[in-house]
Design brief:
80% helix; single chain; 7 helices; elongated
C-alpha cells in the first residue's frame, strides 16, 4: 500500500504542479491559465490518480474487494503525498522568482477592485489587506499550510468519493 501511495501521490503532485507552473509561466500571471478555476480543474484531473491508485490496490493486492476505510486511507495518503510535492515545488518556484508571485497576485487584486470602481476608503482597505497578505505570505509557517490547503481538500473529496465507489467490487471489476 505504501508503494502505491508514493507512486500515485508523486504522479498526482507532479501533474498538478507542472501544469500550474506551465500555466502561470505561459500566461505571465494573467488570463485563463492563471485563474483559480483552471487551477482546480487541473487538481481534479491530476488527483483522479487517487481513484486509479485505490482501484489498482483493490484489484492487484486485495483480490478485487476493498472496504471503505482502507480505500479512504489510501486516498488520503496519495493526497498527502501529492500535497507535499505541490508545496515543495511551489516553494522552489517562489525561491527561483524571488517571491514575485505574491506581488503580482496582490497587484492583480487591487487592479480588479479599481476596475470594479472601488475608490477612497474602500480601496485603501483593499490595499491594506493586500499589504497584510504580503506580510503573512512571507512567513513560512503561514505560507506552507496555506499552500497545502489549496490542494488537500480536493484530494480529500476525491478520496471519499473513490472509496465509496470502489468498495463495490462490481464497479469496474478486476480482470481475471
Amino acid at each position: 500500500m505504501l508503494r502505491i501511495s508514493v507512486v500515485y501521490g508523486v504522479l498526482s503532485g507532479t501533474i498538478v504542479i507542472l501544469s500550474m507552473l506551465l500555466g502561470i509561466i505561459s500566461s505571465n500571471g494573467q488570463g485563463f491559465y492563471a485563474s483559480e478555476y483552471f487551477g482546480y480543474l487541473i487538481m481534479l484531473v491530476a488527483l483522479s490518480m487517487i481513484f486509479v491508485g485505490i482501484k489498482r490496490y483493490r484489484d492487484l493486492h486485495l483480490g478485487g474487494v476493498i472496504k471503505f476505510l482502507p480505500g479512504f486511507g489510501l486516498g488520503l495518503a496519495i493526497s498527502a503525498i501529492a500535497g507535499a510535492i505541490y508545496v515543495f515545488v511551489w516553494e522552489m518556484y517562489l525561491l527561483s522568482t524571488d517571491f514575485a508571485f505574491i506581488n503580482e497576485y496582490t497587484a492583480g487584486l487591487i487592479e480588479a477592485k479599481k476596475a470594479e470602481g472601488v475608490t477612497g476608503a474602500a480601496l485603501d482597505k483593499v490595499i491594506a489587506e493586500a499589504e497584510q497578505l504580503k506580510v503573512n505570505y512571507a512567513k513560512p509557517y503561514i505560507r506552507l499550510p496555506m499552500t497545502f490547503v489549496e490542494i488537500f481538500p480536493v484530494g480529500l473529496i476525491i478520496s471519499l468519493i473513490s472509496a465509496i465507489l470502489l468498495r463495490n467490487p462490481k464497479l469496474l471489476p478486476a480482470k481475471a
